[in-house]
Amino acid sequence: MQITMSRRKRIKDSGCDAMSAQLGTTITRLRKAGKLSLGDLSEQSGVAKSMISQIEKNESNPTLATITRLSQALGISVENVLSFSPDSSALVQKATRQDIPLIQSEDGLCTLRIIGWIATVEYTQWYDFVAEAGGVLESSPHPDGSVENLSVLEGELEVSIGNEVWRCKAGETLRYRADRPHKITNIGTGTARATMVNILAHTVER
Q1: Is 206 among the domain residues?
Q2: How far apart are CA 139 and CA 196, in angstroms?
Q3: In what order do the strands lie in the sheet with 110-114?
Q4: List of residues 6+ apart from 72 with CB closer than 8 A
Q5: pLDDT-flagged residues of the chain (< 70)
Q6: 24, 49, 82: which is the final residue of a domain?
Q7: 180 within some domain
Q8: I want to staple 178 with a disulfide (CB 3.0 to 4.6 A). Which of 34, 62, 148, 191 is the partner?
Q9: Strands 136-139 and 164-169
Q10: How far apart are CA 197 and CA 175, in angstroms?
């Protein structure tokens, strides 16, 4: 069956629209997973805040250069940001090490690798947490009702919220209210490692 030029154009435009929408969703989820505001991402990428907002709302078709700057700021490859598969393959995604965004604590002694799926980051956030001796990770409150699950794999960590303090050793798990300021400290003499899963009560637009 012959396909007319106008139909080809409609098919092409439809594919571009779908990819653009996927891109906007991906950028939004990665930004929120990295706890970045639009202003933060703009400052780190050099892309105007208004442009990022338009991309996230699917109101703009960014250039490859813009996508590259955003990808670098978010700590993920361009290929992964642009990946869009309309088929029904059983494989949802394969992420390489360079595709896993990395967050560092202010003291530079703690790192969080975002290993959870970005499609669900607005509801569940899954991290690989590593802290050098004495490292401290301070976090702002998550949405009301959120719960953080910390499972220690190596070493010993201390979690403090207000006047409450708990210790957690390898093989143990702490679950605590994360809708208030909280802090995780490596109180051991060596490197500590844990899996952290945040279950967010609801989504808050930043």
Answers
A1: no
A2: 13
A3: 102-104, 110-114, 124-131, 192-199, 147-154, 173-177
A4: 45
A5: 1-21, 83-92, 119, 202-206
A6: 82
A7: yes
A8: 148
A9: unpaired
A10: 9
Structure tokens that stand for 132 in this block? 């050098």
pLDDT per position as a tens digit, 84-108: 444 445 666 777 777 787 888 999 9
Tracing tokens 């990946």 back to the chain, one arrives at 83
Cα 102 versus chain centre, distance: 9
Helix (H) or strand (E) holding 133: none
Of 50, 100, 92, nearest to 71 by C-alpha is 100
User: Token match 């092409």: residue?
Assistant: 12
Coil, helix or strand for 43? Answer: helix
pTM (2 decimals)? 0.59
Q: Which tokens is 49 given?
A: 């805040």
Placement of tokens 């700021």 in the chain: 73
- Contact predicate 41/47, CB 8 Å: yes
Instruction: Give the domain range for residue 58.
Output: 5-82
* Helix, strand counts (H, E) of the chain: 5, 10
Question: From CA 148, how far away is CA 198, in angstroms rounded?
Answer: 4
Count: domains in the chain: 2
Decide: 130 and 193 in contact? Cβ < 8 Å. Answer: yes
Q: Other C-beta atoms within 10 Å of 83: how many? A: 15
| 170-193: pLDDT as tens digits | 999 999 999 999 999 999 999 999
